[in-house]
Structures are given as structure tokens and as C-alpha cells.
């Protein structure tokens, strides 16, 4: 996938004041901070950081949101999602992606602590062709603030949960869940640490009586976590020339690794099984590694003799339902 043209153009325009070497240096520093996972102060805290985030991270977090929200739409096509609450919105990434996928989206509320992100997000939103994004309501607020949040059809926390100290996690998640009429979507980096935050949210939501729509086909203990592994997926996105330059990269694409969870209050059937690794496609047979409804990991081989299944297996990717 690629970032919509209007977003690439708007991002270039934003950083036109900052030289690309300065943005590239800020991007390297931002990567270092995210890797160190020390969020005593916000990872993004200067205008150079914001330019770097927009140029180097926004395309990837947009791609992960796009993939996850597409899966939500695919598994619950009939459920109306007209209102969206984005917690830890940054530049508004989730709302941009949601507006591309959820055709019935009528209003979005974005909660963000950093006033500079809010200002920048509003400017970026002016470039959107979607009135829902242009008219979104922004609330400057700390997610740890104990006041309740307004109820929305879907609530998204994208790459924000991991920035909270673990002591605050359950309270923030509790408020997020109470404000979710139908769905709570959590997306984190596809690292051991990102998955640990998603898995902690999974345990918490199950305790609250939530159903799991994706990626898990079951509510039993996570077999990946039990094996000391981490459940994550990958979304390929095209890099623009500018994106490549800022990242000092030569490849025309990158693979964003992400972990996610969609909790729901509705009775909706999850996938029968989830493909949890790259399918191994050989001539005449395809091997799939699945997380199954029984709550266990299972390897299966689909051979050419099973015509329909083989045809489907040739199309599927890591992260798809099976
Ligand atoms: C990595 S950015 C993610 C931005 C966006 N959701 C995305 O997916 O691209 C994390 C955002 O969460 C915000 N954030 C972190 N802790 C917060 C808190 N306690 N209250 C409100 N916002 C917070 C940060 O200011 C930042 O904008």
C-alpha cells in the first residue's frame, strides 16, 4: 500500500521549512528513543521531532492502521461505525486511515496531550478530502486524566499505549473500554515490548468480558506468549523518494511490523484461524502456521490435490484469516 497522495503532499509541505538532513538526524534520534523505550518524557517533543515523525513514522503507522481497520471492516461489515475516538492521536493518523476505510464515518474525536501535535494535526486535516477528518474535534487532554471519555462506536489507541507507564495502563484501558460502544482497537509496534502491551490489554479486556474479533480466533491464553514468542504482523508500504532520503534507505518499500487487538462488545464470530507467519509457498504445496480456535498453534500443509484450499492458500498472506 502507499500513503494517499494528498497526505504525502501535505507532509512534504510541512517540512519544507526544515532541511532534509536535519529531519533525517531527528528521525535517527527518534528511532533511538523508541528503541530505548524510555518514555519518562514524550518521545516526540520538538518541532524537529514532529517533522521526523511525519516523514519517517506516520506513513508506517498509517499503513498499520489501514490494515487493522480493513480487517475490522472485513470481519464486521454490517456494523455501523459512524463515530471514532482516537486516544493519543498524534497528528491524527488513525482518523486519516479510518476515513479511507469506514465509509459511514460521520464524526471523529481526537484526544492528544501535546498542543503542538493538535495544531499540526488540524493543519494536516485541512488537506483531507474527507469532511469527517476536516471537522474532527480535538481534545487536549492527558489520557491519565481520570475524567470519563465520551462514548463512540469505535475507539482506537494507535502506538500510544506503550508510551504509558505500566502503572497507568489498566486505568487508561478501563476508560478506553468504557467509551467503546462496539469496538476497541489497540495497535502497537510489532516488537516484544509492543506485543507485551497488547497482550496485557488482551488479558484486561477478557477480564472485562470483552469479545475478541481479531487477530485472535479464541479467548484462551495466548499460545505465542506461552511459547516466549510475540504475535505480530507485517504491512508493506511504498516509500517515496523523500521518505527514502530521510531514512537513508535504498529500498522502495518498507515492512512495518505491528501487533494489534480488536476487542468488541458485540457477538461476532472471529476468524476460524489466523496465519501467524509468512506462508511457505512451495511448488505443489503450501505450509501455513496458524493460531486456531482451540487456542493452540498448528502447522498445516495445503496440497495441490485440495484444489479450492490450494487456490486460497496461494492468495493468503501473513496476518490473514484462514
Ligand atoms: C507514537 S505517537 C502515535 C501517534 C498516532 N496515534 C499514530 O499512530 O501515529 C504517541 C502519541 O501519544 C501521545 N501520548 C502519549 N502519552 C499520552 C498521554 N498520557 N495522554 C495523551 N496523549 C499521550 C503522544 O503525545 C503522541 O502523540
User: What's the Cα radius of gyration?
Assistant: 19 Å
N-to-C order of helices and strands: HHHEHEHHEEHEHEHEHEEEEEH
Q: Which structural class do you get from the secondary structure elements? A: alpha/beta
Q: Give the overall shape, derived from the CA principal axes.
A: globular
Helix content: 40-55%
Low-confidence stretches: none
Kindly describe this structure.
The chain has 322 residues and is of the alpha/beta class. Helix content is 40%, strand content 23%. Strand 4, helix 7 (166-178) and strand 5 (180-189) form a beta-alpha-beta unit. Helix 2 (20-36) crosses helix 10 (241-247). The two termini are 22 Å apart.
Question: How would you summarize this macromolecular structure in one to three sentences?
Answer:
The chain has 322 residues and is an alpha/beta fold. The chain has helices spanning 5-14, 20-36, 47-75, 93-101, 115-125, 131-134, 166-178, 192-207, 223-226, 241-247, 307-315, and strands at residues 83-87, 107-112, 137-140, 152-158, 180-189, 211-214, 233-238, 253-264, 273-275, 280-281, 285-292, 297-303.
Amino acid at each position: 500500500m502507499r500513503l494517499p497522495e494528498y497526505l504525502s503532499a501535505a507532509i512534504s509541505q510541512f517540512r519544507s521549512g526544515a532541511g532534509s538532513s536535519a529531519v533525517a538526524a531527528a528521525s535517527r534520534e527518534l528511532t533511538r528513543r523508541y528503541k530505548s523505550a524510555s518514555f519518562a518524557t514524550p518521545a516526540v517533543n520538538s518541532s524537529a521531532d514532529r517533522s521526523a515523525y511525519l516523514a519517517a513514522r506516520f506513513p508506517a503507522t498509517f499503513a498499520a492502521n489501514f490494515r487493522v481497520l480493513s480487517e475490522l471492516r472485513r470481519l464486521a461489515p454490517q456494523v455501523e461505525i459512524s463515530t471514532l475516538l482516537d486516544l493519543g492521536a498524534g497528528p491524527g493518523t488513525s482518523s486519516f486511515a479510518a476515513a479511507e476505510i469506514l465509509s459511514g464515518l460521520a464524526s471523529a474525536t481526537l484526544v492528544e496531550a501535546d498542543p503542538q501535535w493538535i495544531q499540526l494535526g488540524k493543519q494536516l486535516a485541512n488537506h483531507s478530502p474527507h469532511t469527517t477528518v476536516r471537522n474532527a474535534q480535538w481534545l487536549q487532554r492527558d489520557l491519565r486524566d481520570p475524567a470519563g471519555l465520551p462514548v463512540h462506536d469505535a475507539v482506537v489507541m494507535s502506538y500510544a499505549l506503550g508510551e504509558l507507564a505500566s502503572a497507568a495502563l489498566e486505568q487508561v484501558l478501563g476508560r478506553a473500554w468504557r467509551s467503546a460502544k462496539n469496538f476497541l482497537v489497540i495497535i502497537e509496534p510489532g516488537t516484544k515490548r509492543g506485543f507485551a502491551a497488547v497482550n496485557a490489554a488482551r488479558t484486561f479486556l477478557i477480564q472485562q468480558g470483552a469479545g475478541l474479533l481479531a487477530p485472535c480466533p479464541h479467548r484462551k491464553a495466548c499460545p505465542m506468549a506461552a511459547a516466549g514468542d510475540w504475535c505480530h504482523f507485517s504491512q508493506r508500504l511504498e516509500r517515496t523518494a523523500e521518505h527514502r532520503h530521510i531514512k537513508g534507505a535504498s529500498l522502495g518499500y518498507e515492512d512495518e511490523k505491528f501487533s494489534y487487538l480488536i476487542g468488541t462488545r458485540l457477538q461476532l464470530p472471529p476468524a476460524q484461524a489466523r496465519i501467524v507467519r509468512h506462508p511457505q509457498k512451495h511448488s505443489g504445496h503450501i505450509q501455513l502456521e496458524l493460531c486456531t480456535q482451540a487456542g493452540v498453534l498448528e502447522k498445516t500443509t495445503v496440497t495441490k490435490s485440495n484444489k479450492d484450499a490450494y487456490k486460497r492458500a496461494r492468495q493468503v498472506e501473513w496476518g490473514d484469516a484462514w
